[in-house]
Specification:
The protein is mainly α. 82% of the residues lie in helices and 0% in strands. The protein has four helices and no strands.
């Protein structure tokens, strides 16, 4: 079941990155590299923001050290999640750009 969730995450990140890269290329903005990373990598920012909501609504952590430990671990997890999803977005956009420009025939 966990592998299905990871597969859905990978497919969703790849599809989002390809569609947004296509829109960017249609607007003649050819600087797609960083944007393709940030479009999907911004999920890490959302995850870290949600950790504040989860902390205040569900968790009953008391104490400064426990709170700092929670947010430190969530920052690291959010950073790794953002790097992972951003890499998926960049690689899929790179593959897409190679495919569409490789199909162009110059006579």
């Amino acid at each position: 079941a966990e592998m299905a969730i990871v597969l859905i995450l990978i497919i969703t990140c790849a599809e989002m990155a390809i569609v947004l890269c296509y829109f960017q290329l249609c607007n003649e903005n050819y600087q797609w590299q960083w944007r393709s990373f940030l479009n999907t990598g911004s999920a890490g920012i959302f995850l870290f923001g949600y950790s504040f909501v989860y902390f205040s609504s569900t968790l009953e952590i008391m104490g400064f050290v426990s709170t700092m430990l929670y947010f430190s671990y969530m920052f690291i997890c959010s950073l790794l999640f953002g790097i992972t999803t951003g890499t998926i977005g960049f690689v899929s956009s790179w593959w897409f750009v190679l495919q569409i420009y490789g199909a162009v025939k110059v006579d």
